[in-house]
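[audit] Reproducing an earlier prediction to check determinism. Same input, same settings, fresh worker. If the tokens differ from the archived copy the diff job will pick it up downstream; this log only records the rerun itself.
[audit] input (210 residues):
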Amino acid sequence: MDEYYFYTKGLTVGYHGVPLIKDIGLCLKKGEILTLIGPNGAGKTTILKNIIRQLKPLGGVAVLDGSNMEELSGRALSKKLSVVLTERVRPEMMNCRDVVSTGRYPYTGKFGVLSEEDWKIVDESMGLVHIEELAERDFTKTSDGQKQRVMLARALCQEPDMIVLDEPTSFLDIRYKLEFLSIIQKHVQNEKTVGHYVPSRTGPGRMDFR
């Protein structure tokens, strides 16, 4: 497995000690995109939450860059992996630029003060998803689609080697869906890795890894 940047081995996920899906095997090299497809309720988001440590696996391991993810510090993990979820964050009294800037916190000192270089990366990330005009707007007063683009900019701002996305185009119109896919393609061309989770109309219980 040394050739993979990320992989799972014997991963079992579920709730309250009851397995939902057993022996999950995912493998990703740098510069690859993995799409997990399945019907609503099949367990895609549960798998994601175990991978990003929102839930504790019932068994098995997830390995990132040669390290068991459970053993990585929060800061070390944040420098390697960023996440875009469908769940909405609710920051108080923060404009969109402030929200994007939180992606730089893994690189700051204990006081969380951003340098000029950090702010430059914030603005570049906003430019990549074309939300410069939202910079001073209250994040809570933006549309679902705008929030999704702000959170993508935040993920890019972390400069991770791997991005995990949960139904990332759910709230986007066709123009921004195509734009989003173009951004992800460029990210991968820089030998970054993407895990992408989408719903499907396949039969109950079926999952396809692509």
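[audit] rerun output stored. Observation attached for the diff report: The helical segments are 44-51, 74-80, 96-101, 116-128, 144-157, 174-189.
[audit] end
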